[in-house]
Design a protein that fits this description.
Strand 1 and strand 2 form a beta hairpin. Helices cover about 20% and strands about 40% of the residues. It is an alpha+beta fold and about 120 residues long. It has 2 helices and 7 strands, in the order E-E-E-H-E-E-H-E-E. Helix 1 packs antiparallel against helix 2. The two termini are about 15 Å apart. About 20% of the residues have low confidence. The strands form 2 sheets. A 5-stranded mixed β-sheet has the order 6-3-5-4-7, with helices on one face.
């Protein structure tokens, strides 16, 4: 069982505000970015998805994370460029306390006009 520190459950530092149709938009002048990722190493069975969700909410990005059948963790992150870059660094260097990140691959990085998700979630 994975236990997340209470601090990781805190609200994001940058509030999200909902704009029509339940989509979230962040109050910022920065361009919005979207990037897909896949994390390789010891990343399953070590609460990696739960810590990723906690970090994403803390940083203030949206998207998703899930385990793959090949033992990696994959997902997508969207938000202001600076926050997406912060999440990319966390996915590359930090992870959950018991994880071992061998490498992280990022793909399909692009500027987007609006967020495609209203929160960050774990997919199954």
């Amino acid at each position: 069982m994975c236990l997340l520190p209470v601090a990781a459950l805190a609200a994001p530092r940058s509030p999200l505000r909902l704009l029509g149709r339940g989509r979230a938009a962040m109050s910022t002048a920065q361009p919005l970015k979207s990037v897909d990722y896949e994390v390789f190493g010891r990343v399953q069975g070590v609460c990696f998805r739960m810590y990723t969700e906690g970090e994403a909410k803390k940083v203030g990005v949206v998207g998703w994370v899930k385990n793959t059948s090949k033992g990696t963790v994959t997902g997508q992150v969207q938000g202001p460029e600076e926050k997406v870059n912060s999440m990319k660094s966390w996915l590359s260097k930090v992870g959950s306390p018991s994880s071992r990140i061998d490498r992280t691959e990022f793909s399909n990085e692009k500027t987007i006009s609006k967020l495609e998700y209203s929160n960050f979630s774990i997919r199954y």
